[in-house]
């Protein structure tokens, strides 16, 4: 193996791929060869670094220089300066979003990473996920070896139980206990399932782990199978995650070639086979009973529990289902011990949690924070706050099943109990941030539309109740709401919660309930004052031109897509309210700020 | 690919794979080659190539080879710095390809500074 003095890591996660990292990789390959550096500089494809906002990301080691938004045109200069002459290319370094515009040369010094604690994401963006040897070089499969060769299944289970790990899919059930149920369940055939059916809008934690470090999930499943006594497993991943599936296929194939999956693993009696089941992307299939139905080839609809999967799951056999992030935690817990893991986090919530930070926040991307960190720290310290000097308004936790929290709740620590107490849920880790320009009623409507579309239709309250709730919200946004509607919404929300079989229906009203609780003023403004405070709902706003300020430049009239603006050149213009579609483009182009919205 | 059938197999593969990722972690001995225009003109490229060959030949995996720009002492190029963890930064001047094996054996492996090539030391 040749010695490489420098490693150039190009992020090939979905975020960076979308912003063009593929052509950056190709350009780097060509340029390194052209300069004859390809024998001493290694080019590596990695998974997500988390800072998708800054993609395509290129990191150069040994210096650890973190280059942002690299284009193929930047490549010749980057290679010449950094790799040939050894000068860090200043202009592509990460720059802080504040006024000072500090350039930060080192990966580790970027504030976004400073407050994070990367346990699950330790390999993401650091290793080549398509190369099992890089995973092994980073202690990969050592945990499996320890479990198989040093510990009995009982001892391994005991470590997981003592670690305090709880399910990262959202519900937070203690993982060790779940494993114990499946282990104790009678039966000689047992299954292990990995739930990779991540479907919340704005969530991409599991996808990034699968893309960046697939072996950590495979190793976690192997250890779980050993504890439970299972010889067969499924990873249920939505087909719309093509890159995650590709990396998983490669990972499983390489693990099989090395004998880490198959019969008599590492010379022991333990055998395990792993399959990938591609789902069609229905949100409800993230619910475990629906997920298992889908694996069996049936229509993905939830079934009543009990019986719980631990006793009667896939094809009626005892089955243990955990989420991607939960599985990826397991190898680190076995390697470093229960005490190490439980030293991170709070009294009841141990370890870290990955969040997908999206919406109106500077550093959109993937964040792994120790449990107990406050929402404020996650959004403002790691996320870098709200862009363009706007004010924070709300954060939606846990996707469409979660809740919407206001500024006053920002000091809530991120742990299962504290988040649940607010009416939101931890969920799988989606965090959508909104600023003052977001209408809360419209925001709640968006999530309700999502669950209404994704409802499988089995339970009437979920199928029809969410439809009726949505109609009420639409009415409110159109200015046709009445105060009784708010009570009706609350009443219906409670009934949908109580009358639904699975968590999809059971949590569907959460965004409406929490926004009613924390942002009731805005609902009242829509219904009583017929005003949309954020100036979003088209029926409740009006654009007007101030004749005293208008200079008659005609810019707005030319911009208007429906020709609603009339007026002579150099004379004040007028908007025809009947034609206006409230798109706001006129306001954006006006050079003298003569147009306002009320 | 050979099957892993024991812990020893896994450890061996880990050992072999170490240099796949070792350049990405810190805390190692560093060799820094001056690669400004002055350094390149004085033959730094050739020195760097020999350094890489020599490290590879001796199986020294825990050494990071970095490049740097001009530090202003152009008359002494090629300049090569050696920093062992916790020790001062030693700068060697007028380094030719023939000096490389001596610097690597004496300084990197044995920890003795090659006095006749030293330009200076800083922290």
Counting H and I runs of at least 4 residues, what is the number of helices of chain A? 24
Unreliable parts of chain B: none
* Number of contiguous helices of chain B: 4
| Class based on secondary structure composition and strand pairing of chain B | alpha+beta
**Domains of chain A (count):** 5
Content of β-strand of chain B: 15-25%
Topology:
The complex is a heterodimer of chains A (598) and B (123).
Chain A: E1 6-11, H1 14-18, H2 21-34, E2 41-46, E3 58-61, E4 65-67, H3 75-84, E5 94-95, E6 103-104, H4 111-114, H5 132-137, H6 142-149, H7 153-163, H8 175-184, E7 191-196, H9 205-212, H10 214-228, E8 232-238, H11 242-257, E9 273-279, H12 288-295, E10 319-323, H13 324-336, H14 338-342, E11 352-359, E12 365-370, H15 375-382, E13 392-397, E14 403-406, H16 416-421, E15 430-435, H17 440-454, H18 460-477, H19 483-498, H20 503-507, H21 510-518, H22 520-527, E16 543-545, H23 555-559, E17 565-566, E18 574-575, H24 585-589, E19 595-597
Helix pairs in contact in A: 6-10, 6-13, 7-8, 7-10, 9-10, 9-11, 10-13, 17-18, 18-19, 19-21
Chain B: H1 7-21, E1 29-34, H2 37-42, H3 44-58, E2 63-68, E3 80-83, E4 89-92, H4 100-109, E5 118-122
